């Protein structure tokens, strides 16, 4: 936490001051004052204005220090030129939390950043916390605190946002779904209070059930991921909407690892480590929050599809499979049970097509749903089609349909398996009854299948684990191949026998000592192969001396590495790299290596350091995983050795903060073990 007093003064203060309160309806000082005055029964609200003129019909103080009883939380909405004076006034009045609405700091450049940092430090020294500046306010509906520019619905979602518009759109979508915010905090520039601080506070808050975020800058990404993982372990799902799919920050990448590791991929890796659900838009964010509110219990991928028409049955099955779900054929017992409830023309093997049963006997929906939910071979159910529209045929059928909706909801609660209902008539009474009874109802079968896929994903996740960075080791002296090789070898990675030499005679002597075919590598080159600084399969002294003479003439390197030629028979080449991300620290990359690295881009990412168990999981997720397990007569490679190598490589990188990029490519994995055949490091500037 950023201050010893925690965030209680931010979300449940004893008293509030609005510094910059205004009658001008175009100003935040007016908008926030309007909202704050709605809750004066919860705590004193003091309006502060230098002119001393009444605001919204209320008397004002010229300074916060004039407020009787002092001020615990101050919202500052004054021009940037007066912000520092307002901060001093608030602190003098006893404020332990300050919300900086005022803009004009770090977002304007270096001078603004320095000014902002100095202000944040001043506030921290006073034992207070700062939200913002350049933010849109804070609210806590459980404590009656309303200090944001707009009214927002109450509920159980704790929201953290760097965008006011995102908060407003999400609040409107949640409200339509009967949900709302327990807390909302606008991050602004995060000069003091960070997203991680707010997640921790929401995790401890009894009124918050779900945590949602819109973030553009994570600050300390490791702290963010750790706070999110703690929340997930505490039973509070975390859902993230963010940006970062671009490659702008990768323009300076100097290795395969840097070129392949986008901002978006790094965020995905952090989300996987922390157990966070990442979404791509506000609508998806709202849908997932609604589903998690109604059903957070486990699910699986085996889905029963129930439809009242062949077209919907087929389409829903395709859509379900596109979202990673399975629509398996039912066993004989379940098929027979369904056949007994439905017309002879009905489909009962999965998908289930009621074939007109809805019009003939609307209650069949409840019985079919109960049968499928009762079956051990079914993890979840997707209902799709016309349900909700039958009531349009007459009042008797409308009443029966609504009664059936109540039965369906009761059976869903009794079985505890995830159910999503898609209907063309989501606004009709029966569909609204399902919704009001806690069932997830959607107007799109794609959205219904998507949330079931999300629930299945969540059920398969391991316990969140964000790796802790080890103590820093002695820094690497330079970035040549030998340094990288020895750093990794000392860290536990096996390389072929090698010697570091300088002259032609030393090259020849080293080759003779190693014996057999050797590789000659020129030192001092980042991309040795591209420059012609690698000669393979040198079988005798003449070949060794010729290769040395060629490199000396073309490249004039400071030295050479003579290395035993590895036996690549039955081997698979991998790439293992680590890039130090400015927000999330070291990020590991594992993929198909050698000449296929950038062609196939078959890679997986994780926060580093990676354990051997985690490395095996990454390798298993590669498209090339069948090559590792053995295919078409090729033997399986030593996956355990590969996993240990990944663990060693990522541990070395994590212990060396001066290394911006580290890469082993290729890492040769054979049935007999694992060898590093090339390595490079890039030191940070």
Describe the 3D structure.
The two termini are 31 Å apart. Helix 5 crosses helix 10 and helix 10 (282-294) crosses helix 17. The protein has four domains: 8-243, Rossmann fold (3-Layer(aba) Sandwich); 297-460, Rossmann fold, CATH 3.40.50; 497-564, ATP-grasp fold, A domain (Dna Ligase, domain 1, 2-Layer Sandwich), CATH 3.30.1490; 572-683, ATP-grasp fold, B domain (D-amino Acid Aminotransferase, Chain A, domain 1). The strands form five sheets. It has a seven-stranded mixed β-sheet, sandwiched between helices. Strands 22, 23, 24, 25, 26 and 27 form a six-stranded antiparallel β-sheet that branches. The chain has 24 helices and 27 strands. It is of the alpha/beta class. The radius of gyration is 31 Å and the shape is flat. The longest helix is centred in the middle third of the chain and has 21 residues, at 395-415. Keywords: ATP-binding, Nucleotide-binding. This is CoA-binding protein. Pfam families: ATP-grasp_5, CoA_binding_2, Succ_CoA_lig. GO terms for molecular function: ATP binding; metal ion binding. It comes from Streptomyces antnestii.
Write a brief structural summary.
Residues 485-534 form the ATP-grasp domain. This protein has 685 residues and is of the alpha/beta class.
- Helix content bin: 25-40%
Instruction: Tell me the fraction of residues in β-strands, as a range.
Output: 15-25%
Structural class by secondary-structure content: alpha/beta
Assign the CATH architecture of the largest domain: 3-Layer(aba) Sandwich
| Oligomeric state | single chain
Residue stretches low in confidence (pLDDT < 50, at least 5 long) are: 1-5, 245-261
The CATH H-level superfamily of the largest domain is NAD(P)-binding Rossmann-like Domain
* End-to-end C-alpha gap: 31 Å
Number of helices: 24
Keywords: ATP-binding, Nucleotide-binding
GO molecular function: ATP binding; metal ion binding
Domain ATP-grasp: 485-534
InterPro entries: ATP-grasp, ATP_grasp_subdomain_1, CoA-bd, NAD(P)-bd_dom_sf, Succ_CoA_lig_flav_dom, Succinyl-CoA_synth-like
């Amino acid at each position: 936490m950023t201050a010893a007093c925690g965030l209680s003064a931010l979300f449940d203060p004893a008293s509030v001051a609005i510094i910059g309160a205004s009658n001008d309806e175009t100003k935040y000082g007016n908008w926030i004052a309007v909202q704050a005055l709605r809750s004066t029964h919860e705590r004193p609200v003091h309006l502060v204005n230098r002119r001393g003129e009444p605001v919204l019909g209320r008397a004002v103080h010229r300074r916060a220090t004039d407020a009787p009883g002092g001020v615990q939380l101050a919202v500052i909405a004054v021009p940037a030129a007066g912000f520092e004076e307002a901060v001093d006034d608030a602190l003098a009045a006893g404020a332990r939390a300050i919300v900086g609405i005022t803009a004009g700091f770090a977002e304007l450049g270096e001078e603004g950043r320095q000014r902002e940092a100095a202000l944040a430090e001043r506030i921290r020294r006073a034992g207070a916390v700062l939200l913002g500046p350049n933010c849109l306010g804070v609210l806590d509906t459980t404590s009656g605190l309303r200090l944001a520019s707009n009214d927002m619905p109450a509920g159980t979602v704790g929201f953290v946002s760097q965008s006011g518009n995102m908060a407003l759109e999400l609040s409107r979508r949640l409200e339509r779904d009967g949900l709302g915010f327990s807390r909302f905090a606008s991050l602004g520039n995060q000069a003091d209070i960070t997203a991680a601080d707010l997640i921790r506070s929401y995790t401890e808050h009894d009124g918050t059930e779900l945590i949602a975020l819109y973030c553009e800058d994570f600050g300390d990404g490791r702290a963010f991921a750790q706070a999110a993982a703690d929340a997930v372990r505490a039973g509070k799902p975390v859902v993230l909407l963010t940006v970062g799919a671009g490659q702008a920050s990768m323009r300076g990448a100097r290795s395969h690892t840097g070129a392949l590791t986008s901002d978006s991929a790094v965020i995905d890796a952090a989300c996987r480590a922390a157990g966070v659900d990442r979404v791509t838009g506000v609508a998806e964010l709202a849908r997932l929050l609604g589903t998690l509110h109604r059903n957070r219990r486990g699910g699986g991928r085996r889905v029963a599809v129930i439809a009242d028409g062949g077209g919907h049955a087929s389409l829903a099955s395709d859509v379900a499979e596109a979202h990673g779900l399975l629509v398996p054929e039912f066993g004989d017992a379940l098929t027979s049970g369904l056949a007994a409830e439905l017309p002879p023309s009905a489909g009962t093997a999965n998908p289930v097509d009621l074939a007109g049963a809805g019009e003939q006997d609307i209650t069949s929906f409840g019985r079919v749903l109960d049968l499928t939910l009762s079956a051990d071979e079914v993890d979840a159910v997707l209902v799709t089609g016309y349900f909700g529209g039958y009531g349009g045929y007459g009042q008797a059928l409308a009443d029966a349909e609504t009664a059936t909706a109540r039965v369906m909801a009761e059976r869903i609660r009794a079985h505890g398996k995830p159910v999503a209902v898609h209907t063309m008539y989501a606004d009709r009474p029966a569909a609204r009854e399902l919704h009001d009874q806690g069932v997830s109802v959607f107007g799109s079968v794609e959205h219904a299948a998507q949330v079931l896929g999300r629930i299945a994903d969540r059920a398969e996740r391991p316990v969140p684990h964000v790796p802790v960075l080890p103590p820093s080791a002695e820094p690497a002296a330079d970035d040549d191949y030998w340094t990288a090789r020895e750093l990794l070898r000392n860290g536990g990675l096996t390389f072929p026998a090698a010697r570091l030499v300088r002259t032609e005679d030393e090259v020849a002597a080293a080759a003779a000592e190693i014996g057999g075919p050797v590789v000659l590598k020129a030192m001092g080159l980042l991309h040795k192969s591209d420059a012609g600084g690698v000669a393979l399969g040198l079988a005798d002294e003449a070949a060794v001396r010729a290769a040395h003479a060629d490199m000396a003439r073309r490249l004039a390197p400071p030295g050479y590495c003579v290395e035993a030629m590895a036996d690549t028979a039955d081997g698979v080449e991998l790439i293992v790299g680590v890039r130090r991300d400015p927000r999330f620290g070291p990020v590991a990359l594992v993929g198909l290596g050698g000449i296929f690295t950038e062609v196939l881009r078959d890679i997986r990412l994780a926060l580093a350091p990676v354990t051997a168990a985690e490395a095996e999981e990454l390798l298993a997720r590669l498209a090339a995983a069948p090559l590792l397990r053995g295919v078409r007569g090729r033997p399986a490679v030593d996956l355990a050795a590969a996993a240990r190598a990944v663990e060693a490589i990522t541990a070395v990188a994590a212990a060396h903060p001066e290394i911006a990029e580290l890469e082993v490519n290729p890492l040769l994995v054979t049935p007999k073990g694992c060898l590093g055949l090339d390595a490079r490091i890039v030191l940070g500037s």
